[in-house]
Please model this.
Amino acid sequence: MNIAINNRPLSGKYSYEQGFFSDYILKTIEAYQENLYFLISDNIAGASTLISGSTTIAIAPATRNILALKFWYGFKLPSLLKKYAANIFININSIASLNSATPQFLLVADIAMLEGLSFSKKDIKSFLNKATRIIAFSQFVKNKLIKDYFIDEEKIIVFYMAGDNGYLPISETEKEACKEKYAAEKEYFLFIGELNSANNLIHLLKAFSFFKKRQKSNMQLVIATKTVLPNNAFIKSLASYKYKDDVKLLFDLPQQALTTITASAYIFVYAPTENNFYLPVVQAMQSGVPVIVSNTILMNEICGDAALFTDPAIFEHIADKMMLLFKDENKRNELIEKGKQQAAQFTIEKSSQVLWKNITKCAGITG
Model:
C-alpha cells in the first residue's frame, strides 16, 4: 500500500499540538514496514528519518493564507497523489483536497485549528464531507463534528492518544536525583505545554502566588516547553513575577528527561481555557502523578474520577486544588491510584490497532 502523509503542522498557536499529533501518528504506524510511505513535510533532509525507508515528496505550505492553502490542496496535492499512486492520504491538518479521488483520512484533534484559520463553515464542512474517514481524538470532538457540521457519525472514529511505555512511576532515588537537577532539590508542581494564552499560564502563576502566600512552602513550579522568542508574553510577565526564582523554565528537553520530570512531579497542573490537547495529562496519570485539570467536557471524558477539576477562569479555584492536594496526602494517594487505573485504558497497542484498522478500511483494503 502506498501511503501519503502530510505531517507538516500549519503555522499558528496550534502548531505545537499538531507537532505532537504528527509524531504520535508516525510512531504508531511505523511498525507496518511492508508499506511505502511518502511524506509531505517541512524538512527534506530529516523527514525520511521519521519513518524508516520513507520518501519525502514535497514541502507543504506553512501559511495561514486561505487562498494559498486552497491552491495547494486543490491543485498541487492531487497531482502529487496521482504521481505516487497513493492508496490513501493522511492529513494531520484536517484539510481535504476536494479535487482528488484518493481516499482521504483526516485527523481532527480540535476543530478550532481549522476555525482559527478563518475557513468558512461551508469550507470546513466540505473538507469533512470529502474525507473517507475522520479520526477524532476524543468523543467530545466527535460530538462537536456531528452537532456543528452534521457529519455522518459512522465515518468518525474516536482515537485516544496514550503515553508511550516509558511513562511509568519511578523510584524515590530517581525522583530525588531529578529534583536536584531541575527543581533546586524541592518538590514541584509541573506543567508541560506551549507558552501561549490558550494554556492559561498567567492564571497558573497567580494560583502559584496564592499557594505560596497561604502555605509558606518552598514548592517549585516547573514548566517544560519548547524554545520561545524573547518577546513571548509569558516570559515578559515572568520577569517581574514575585516568585520567579521558584519557577523553573525548561526548554526542548529530550524525551527521556520529560518522562523523568513527569514521574518526579508532586502534582501535575493543566488548566487551559481553550486547549483540547490532553496527552500530557494521560502521561502524568500513567506516571503515578496526581492531576489538576480544567473542568471541561473533554477533561472529564479523559480523567473520569481520577483528577481534581478546577475552573480555569478563576485562579483562586486552581490554587484551592493545589492546596488541597498539598495538605491531604490521603487524597493525593487516592488520585495517584485512580489515575494509574484510568491511564491504563489508553495504551499504545490499542491505539495502534484502532488506527491501522481504519487506515486500511479507508484505503478500501479488507481482510
User: Anything to note?
Assistant: The radius of gyration is 21 Å. Residues 172-343 form a domain with the Rossmann fold fold (CATH 3.40.50.2000). The chain has a mean pLDDT of 88. The chain has two domains: 2-162+348-362, 172-343.
